[in-house]
Amino acid sequence: MTPRVRTLLLVGAVNGLLYVLLSAFAAHGLKNIASAEQLAWFKTAAHYQGIHALALLATGVLLQQFAKTSFYVSGLLMLLGIVVFSGSLYAMALGAPRWFGAITPIGGVSLIAGWLYMLVGLMRTEIL
Description:
Elements: H1 3-30, H2 36-66, H3 69-93, H4 104-123
Helix pairs in contact: 1-2, 1-3, 2-3, 3-4
C-alpha cells in the first residue's frame, strides 16, 4: 500500500468516526442548548462529512486499484471540502460569528471539484 493510499484510507476512517461522534453529540448534547438554526447547521455539516468520509475511502480504494493521480487529488479536494464546508458550519453552530458562512461555499466548491476529479479518474480507467 502506498503512502497516498494509506493517507486517504486513514483520513476517510477518521472522518467516518468523527461523523458518528458528532452526530451523537448533536442528537444528545446539542439539541437542548442550540437554536433550531444552529442544530440544522450542525446536522448539515455532519451529513456532508459522513458522505464524504465514505467518498474518501472510495478514493483510497480506487487509487490502490488504478494508480491514477486524479483519485488522490479527488481525495485531497474532498478532505479540504470537509474541513472548510463542514468546519465552518460546525463553528457557526457552536457560536462562531455568522460571517463564517461566507467561507462555506468555498468548501462546497472543493467537494464538487473532488467529485469531478473522481469522475475524470474513472473515465481514464478500463472500468467505464
